[in-house]
Amino acid sequence: MADERKRILTGIRPTGALHLGHYAGALENWIKLQEEYECFFLIADYQVSDYADDIDTVRAAVYEIALDWLAVGLDPERSHFVIESLIPEHAELTLWLSWYIGLGRLQRNPTLKAEMAELEKNRSESVPVAFFTYPIMQVANILMPKAHLVPVGEDQLPHIEMTREVARKFNRLFGEVFPEPEALVGRVPRLVGLDGNAKMSKSLNNAIYLKDDADTVTKKVMSMYTDPTRLRATDPGHVEGNPVFMYHDAFNPDTAEVDDLKERYVKGAVGDVEVKQKLAAALNTMLDPIRERRAEYASRPDAVREALAKGTEHTRKVAAETMTEVRSALKLNYLE
Ligand code: TRP
Which CATH superfamily is 214-294 part of? Predict the structure, then answer.
Protein backbone atom coordinates (compact mmCIF):
# COMPACT_ATOMS: atom_id res chain seq x y z
CA MET A 1 0.00 0.00 0.00
CA ALA A 2 1.27 3.45 -0.83
CA ASP A 3 2.54 5.46 2.12
CA GLU A 4 0.17 8.42 2.55
CA ARG A 5 2.17 10.28 5.16
CA LYS A 6 3.70 13.63 4.26
CA ARG A 7 7.40 13.42 3.64
CA ILE A 8 10.49 14.68 5.37
CA LEU A 9 13.96 14.71 3.93
CA THR A 10 16.94 15.78 5.91
CA GLY A 11 20.62 15.02 5.71
CA ILE A 12 24.03 15.13 7.18
CA ARG A 13 27.53 15.16 5.69
CA PRO A 14 29.61 12.07 6.57
CA THR A 15 32.62 13.75 8.14
CA GLY A 16 32.52 12.22 11.63
CA ALA A 17 30.43 10.86 14.47
CA LEU A 18 27.53 12.95 15.77
CA HIS A 19 27.67 15.21 18.81
CA LEU A 20 25.34 16.99 21.25
CA GLY A 21 24.88 19.88 18.83
CA HIS A 22 23.41 17.49 16.27
CA TYR A 23 21.22 15.99 18.97
CA ALA A 24 19.65 19.18 20.32
CA GLY A 25 19.57 20.93 16.96
CA ALA A 26 18.24 18.13 14.81
CA LEU A 27 18.11 14.47 15.89
CA GLU A 28 15.77 15.03 18.79
CA ASN A 29 13.23 16.51 16.36
CA TRP A 30 13.74 13.75 13.82
CA ILE A 31 12.95 11.07 16.40
CA LYS A 32 9.56 12.62 17.10
CA LEU A 33 8.78 13.48 13.50
CA GLN A 34 9.19 9.94 12.25
CA GLU A 35 5.93 9.02 13.99
CA GLU A 36 3.98 11.39 11.81
CA TYR A 37 5.95 11.71 8.57
CA GLU A 38 7.57 9.37 6.12
CA CYS A 39 11.20 10.28 6.74
CA PHE A 40 14.23 10.08 4.47
CA PHE A 41 17.45 10.45 6.44
CA LEU A 42 20.27 11.04 4.00
CA ILE A 43 24.01 10.58 4.41
CA ALA A 44 25.27 13.14 1.91
CA ASP A 45 28.50 11.57 0.67
CA TYR A 46 28.37 13.44 -2.66
CA GLN A 47 28.76 16.63 -0.62
CA VAL A 48 32.12 16.11 1.01
CA SER A 49 34.45 17.34 -1.73
CA ASP A 50 36.44 19.07 1.04
CA TYR A 51 37.33 15.51 2.16
CA ALA A 52 38.45 14.36 -1.30
CA ASP A 53 41.87 13.32 0.01
CA ASP A 54 40.41 11.62 3.08
CA ILE A 55 37.87 9.11 1.85
CA ASP A 56 38.72 6.77 4.73
CA THR A 57 37.21 9.31 7.11
CA VAL A 58 34.10 9.53 4.92
CA ARG A 59 33.73 5.75 4.79
CA ALA A 60 34.07 5.42 8.54
CA ALA A 61 31.65 8.31 9.11
CA VAL A 62 28.91 6.75 6.96
CA TYR A 63 28.89 3.77 9.30
CA GLU A 64 29.30 5.84 12.49
CA ILE A 65 26.38 8.07 11.57
CA ALA A 66 24.12 5.11 10.86
CA LEU A 67 25.11 3.73 14.29
CA ASP A 68 24.39 7.07 15.94
CA TRP A 69 21.00 7.23 14.24
CA LEU A 70 20.06 3.76 15.43
CA ALA A 71 21.39 4.58 18.89
CA VAL A 72 19.21 7.68 19.35
CA GLY A 73 16.14 5.80 18.16
CA LEU A 74 15.69 6.56 14.50
CA ASP A 75 13.84 3.52 13.27
CA PRO A 76 14.84 1.95 9.94
CA GLU A 77 11.55 0.01 9.88
CA ARG A 78 9.65 3.24 9.75
CA SER A 79 12.13 5.64 8.13
CA HIS A 80 14.55 5.36 5.24
CA PHE A 81 18.30 5.59 5.87
CA VAL A 82 19.82 6.67 2.56
CA ILE A 83 23.36 6.75 1.18
CA GLU A 84 23.25 9.59 -1.31
CA SER A 85 25.81 8.45 -3.91
CA LEU A 86 24.21 5.02 -4.25
CA ILE A 87 21.34 6.91 -5.86
CA PRO A 88 23.07 8.57 -8.83
CA GLU A 89 19.75 10.19 -9.75
CA HIS A 90 20.81 12.83 -7.20
CA ALA A 91 23.68 13.80 -9.48
CA GLU A 92 21.42 13.89 -12.50
CA LEU A 93 18.75 16.05 -10.87
CA THR A 94 21.46 18.39 -9.56
CA LEU A 95 22.63 18.95 -13.11
CA TRP A 96 19.19 19.68 -14.51
CA LEU A 97 18.37 22.02 -11.61
CA SER A 98 21.64 23.89 -12.11
CA TRP A 99 20.24 25.09 -15.43
CA TYR A 100 17.72 27.13 -13.46
CA ILE A 101 19.88 28.62 -10.71
CA GLY A 102 21.87 31.75 -11.48
CA LEU A 103 25.53 31.99 -10.55
CA GLY A 104 24.84 35.18 -8.61
CA ARG A 105 22.11 33.50 -6.56
CA LEU A 106 24.60 30.90 -5.37
CA GLN A 107 27.33 33.46 -4.73
CA ARG A 108 24.99 35.36 -2.40
CA ASN A 109 24.14 32.32 -0.24
CA PRO A 110 25.49 33.43 3.17
CA THR A 111 26.11 29.93 4.56
CA LEU A 112 27.99 28.87 1.45
CA LYS A 113 29.96 32.11 1.48
CA ALA A 114 31.07 31.61 5.08
CA GLU A 115 31.95 27.95 4.53
CA MET A 116 33.94 28.74 1.39
CA ALA A 117 35.89 31.48 3.18
CA GLU A 118 36.67 29.09 6.05
CA LEU A 119 37.75 26.35 3.67
CA GLU A 120 39.91 28.75 1.65
CA LYS A 121 41.76 29.70 4.84
CA ASN A 122 42.57 26.11 5.70
CA ARG A 123 43.93 24.78 2.44
CA SER A 124 46.55 25.64 -0.12
CA GLU A 125 44.48 24.76 -3.19
CA SER A 126 41.33 26.60 -4.19
CA VAL A 127 37.90 25.29 -3.19
CA PRO A 128 36.56 22.45 -5.39
CA VAL A 129 33.82 23.35 -7.85
CA ALA A 130 31.66 20.64 -6.25
CA PHE A 131 31.83 22.49 -2.95
CA PHE A 132 30.50 25.66 -4.55
CA THR A 133 27.60 23.77 -6.10
CA TYR A 134 26.69 21.58 -3.11
CA PRO A 135 23.63 23.68 -2.20
CA ILE A 136 22.16 22.75 -5.59
CA MET A 137 22.60 19.11 -4.71
CA GLN A 138 20.94 19.76 -1.38
CA VAL A 139 18.01 21.21 -3.32
CA ALA A 140 17.97 18.02 -5.42
CA ASN A 141 18.05 15.89 -2.24
CA ILE A 142 14.98 17.64 -0.89
CA LEU A 143 13.02 17.72 -4.14
CA MET A 144 13.79 14.10 -5.07
CA PRO A 145 11.26 12.55 -2.62
CA LYS A 146 9.08 15.70 -2.90
CA ALA A 147 9.60 16.48 0.76
CA HIS A 148 7.19 18.79 2.56
CA LEU A 149 9.33 19.44 5.60
CA VAL A 150 13.08 19.75 6.17
CA PRO A 151 14.17 19.72 9.83
CA VAL A 152 17.63 21.29 9.97
CA GLY A 153 20.02 23.48 11.93
CA GLU A 154 19.72 27.22 11.62
CA ASP A 155 22.73 27.54 9.28
CA GLN A 156 20.86 25.52 6.64
CA LEU A 157 18.00 27.98 6.21
CA PRO A 158 19.48 29.70 3.12
CA HIS A 159 19.59 26.33 1.36
CA ILE A 160 15.96 25.63 2.17
CA GLU A 161 15.00 29.08 0.92
CA MET A 162 16.80 28.28 -2.32
CA THR A 163 14.94 24.99 -2.53
CA ARG A 164 11.62 26.83 -2.28
CA GLU A 165 12.64 29.24 -5.02
CA VAL A 166 13.76 26.44 -7.33
CA ALA A 167 10.56 24.46 -6.70
CA ARG A 168 8.46 27.54 -7.51
CA LYS A 169 10.42 28.28 -10.66
CA PHE A 170 10.32 24.69 -11.87
CA ASN A 171 6.59 24.43 -11.27
CA ARG A 172 5.96 27.74 -13.02
CA LEU A 173 7.99 26.74 -16.07
CA PHE A 174 7.08 23.07 -16.39
CA GLY A 175 3.90 22.42 -14.41
CA GLU A 176 3.25 21.43 -10.82
CA VAL A 177 5.86 18.80 -9.90
CA PHE A 178 7.37 19.74 -6.54
CA PRO A 179 5.84 20.84 -3.21
CA GLU A 180 7.46 23.95 -1.69
CA PRO A 181 9.11 22.55 1.42
CA GLU A 182 9.14 24.22 4.84
CA ALA A 183 12.17 24.35 7.13
CA LEU A 184 11.92 23.35 10.77
CA VAL A 185 14.69 24.43 13.15
CA GLY A 186 15.41 22.39 16.29
CA ARG A 187 14.99 23.34 19.95
CA VAL A 188 18.58 24.55 20.24
CA PRO A 189 19.36 26.04 16.82
CA ARG A 190 23.06 26.41 17.56
CA LEU A 191 24.80 24.79 20.51
CA VAL A 192 27.79 26.65 21.90
CA GLY A 193 31.09 24.70 22.00
CA LEU A 194 32.83 23.41 25.13
CA ASP A 195 35.36 26.22 24.68
CA GLY A 196 32.68 28.92 24.51
CA ASN A 197 33.08 29.15 20.73
CA ALA A 198 29.82 30.00 18.95
CA LYS A 199 29.29 26.50 17.60
CA MET A 200 29.99 22.94 18.70
CA SER A 201 31.84 21.33 15.84
CA LYS A 202 34.20 18.51 15.11
CA SER A 203 36.67 20.76 13.31
CA LEU A 204 36.87 23.13 16.30
CA ASN A 205 37.55 20.17 18.60
CA ASN A 206 35.00 21.43 21.15
CA ALA A 207 32.38 18.69 21.00
CA ILE A 208 30.86 15.99 23.20
CA TYR A 209 30.05 13.00 21.02
CA LEU A 210 27.03 10.78 21.51
CA LYS A 211 29.45 7.87 21.62
CA ASP A 212 31.76 9.37 24.27
CA ASP A 213 31.88 7.19 27.37
CA ALA A 214 30.82 8.57 30.77
CA ASP A 215 34.38 9.33 31.92
CA THR A 216 35.16 11.21 28.72
CA VAL A 217 31.97 13.25 29.06
CA THR A 218 32.79 14.09 32.68
CA LYS A 219 36.36 15.11 31.79
CA LYS A 220 35.15 17.29 28.94
CA VAL A 221 32.55 18.98 31.12
CA MET A 222 35.07 19.60 33.92
CA SER A 223 37.33 21.39 31.44
CA MET A 224 34.53 23.54 29.97
CA TYR A 225 34.89 27.24 29.50
CA THR A 226 32.85 29.07 32.11
CA ASP A 227 32.61 32.59 33.54
CA PRO A 228 36.15 33.98 33.02
CA THR A 229 35.57 36.87 35.45
CA ARG A 230 35.02 34.54 38.35
CA LEU A 231 38.17 33.58 40.25
CA ARG A 232 36.70 32.08 43.43
CA ALA A 233 33.51 30.19 44.27
CA THR A 234 32.55 33.14 46.48
CA ASP A 235 32.71 35.65 43.59
CA PRO A 236 29.30 36.45 42.11
CA GLY A 237 29.15 34.69 38.72
CA HIS A 238 27.47 35.26 35.37
CA VAL A 239 24.83 32.82 34.16
CA GLU A 240 23.98 34.64 30.92
CA GLY A 241 26.25 33.51 28.11
CA ASN A 242 27.94 30.93 30.34
CA PRO A 243 28.28 27.71 28.31
CA VAL A 244 27.92 25.49 31.38
CA PHE A 245 24.51 26.99 32.13
CA MET A 246 23.52 26.94 28.46
CA TYR A 247 24.10 23.19 28.54
CA HIS A 248 22.15 22.89 31.80
CA ASP A 249 19.27 24.70 30.09
CA ALA A 250 19.56 22.52 27.01
CA PHE A 251 20.03 19.10 28.59
CA ASN A 252 19.25 19.00 32.32
CA PRO A 253 15.56 18.09 32.74
CA ASP A 254 15.69 18.90 36.48
CA THR A 255 14.76 22.59 36.17
CA ALA A 256 14.50 23.02 39.95
CA GLU A 257 18.13 21.94 40.28
CA VAL A 258 19.17 24.29 37.46
CA ASP A 259 17.29 27.23 39.00
CA ASP A 260 18.89 26.58 42.36
CA LEU A 261 22.39 26.41 40.83
CA LYS A 262 21.81 29.66 38.93
CA GLU A 263 20.56 31.43 42.04
CA ARG A 264 23.57 30.37 44.06
CA TYR A 265 25.98 31.06 41.18
CA VAL A 266 25.06 34.74 40.86
CA LYS A 267 25.37 35.10 44.63
CA GLY A 268 28.76 33.42 44.75
CA ALA A 269 27.35 30.54 46.77
CA VAL A 270 28.33 27.59 44.59
CA GLY A 271 31.58 26.54 42.96
CA ASP A 272 32.05 25.80 39.26
CA VAL A 273 32.99 22.24 40.18
CA GLU A 274 29.56 21.45 41.62
CA VAL A 275 27.77 23.10 38.68
CA LYS A 276 29.86 21.05 36.26
CA GLN A 277 29.48 17.80 38.19
CA LYS A 278 25.71 18.15 38.07
CA LEU A 279 25.86 18.88 34.35
CA ALA A 280 28.04 15.82 33.71
CA ALA A 281 25.59 13.69 35.70
CA ALA A 282 22.61 14.99 33.70
CA LEU A 283 24.38 14.43 30.38
CA ASN A 284 25.44 10.93 31.32
CA THR A 285 21.90 10.05 32.39
CA MET A 286 20.67 11.23 29.01
CA LEU A 287 23.43 9.49 27.06
CA ASP A 288 23.41 6.15 28.92
CA PRO A 289 20.54 4.53 26.98
CA ILE A 290 21.96 5.91 23.72
CA ARG A 291 25.36 4.36 24.47
CA GLU A 292 23.71 1.09 25.36
CA ARG A 293 21.80 0.87 22.08
CA ARG A 294 24.91 1.96 20.18
CA ALA A 295 26.97 -0.84 21.70
CA GLU A 296 24.21 -3.30 20.90
CA TYR A 297 24.14 -2.29 17.21
CA ALA A 298 27.94 -2.05 17.03
CA SER A 299 28.01 -5.76 17.85
CA ARG A 300 25.72 -6.41 14.86
CA PRO A 301 27.32 -4.59 11.90
CA ASP A 302 25.11 -6.57 9.52
CA ALA A 303 22.01 -4.97 11.02
CA VAL A 304 23.52 -1.53 10.43
CA ARG A 305 24.37 -2.36 6.82
CA GLU A 306 20.91 -3.83 6.36
CA ALA A 307 19.27 -0.60 7.58
CA LEU A 308 21.31 1.41 5.07
CA ALA A 309 20.70 -1.04 2.24
CA LYS A 310 16.96 -1.23 2.77
CA GLY A 311 16.42 2.52 2.95
CA THR A 312 18.69 3.21 0.01
CA GLU A 313 17.03 0.59 -2.15
CA HIS A 314 13.56 1.94 -1.41
CA THR A 315 14.63 5.54 -2.02
CA ARG A 316 16.21 4.63 -5.33
CA LYS A 317 12.75 3.57 -6.53
CA VAL A 318 11.27 6.85 -5.34
CA ALA A 319 14.08 8.69 -7.15
CA ALA A 320 13.46 6.81 -10.38
CA GLU A 321 9.79 7.82 -10.28
CA THR A 322 10.63 11.46 -9.70
CA MET A 323 13.19 11.45 -12.52
CA THR A 324 10.68 10.00 -14.95
CA GLU A 325 8.38 12.87 -14.07
CA VAL A 326 11.17 15.44 -14.31
CA ARG A 327 12.36 14.19 -17.69
CA SER A 328 8.87 14.28 -19.03
CA ALA A 329 8.25 17.80 -17.61
CA LEU A 330 11.51 19.01 -19.20
CA LYS A 331 10.55 17.31 -22.48
CA LEU A 332 13.62 15.12 -22.36
CA ASN A 333 11.64 11.93 -22.97
CA TYR A 334 12.85 11.89 -26.59
CA LEU A 335 12.20 8.24 -27.33
CA GLU A 336 8.82 7.80 -25.72
N1 TRP B 1 24.28 20.53 4.12
C2 TRP B 1 23.77 19.85 5.28
C3 TRP B 1 24.73 20.08 6.43
O4 TRP B 1 25.88 20.43 6.23
C5 TRP B 1 23.62 18.37 5.03
C6 TRP B 1 22.60 18.05 3.98
C7 TRP B 1 22.83 17.49 2.76
C8 TRP B 1 21.19 18.26 4.06
N9 TRP B 1 21.69 17.31 2.08
C10 TRP B 1 20.66 17.78 2.83
C11 TRP B 1 20.34 18.81 5.03
C12 TRP B 1 19.29 17.86 2.57
C13 TRP B 1 18.97 18.88 4.76
C14 TRP B 1 18.45 18.41 3.52
O15 TRP B 1 24.34 19.89 7.57
Answer: Tyrosyl-Transfer RNA Synthetase (1.10.240.10)
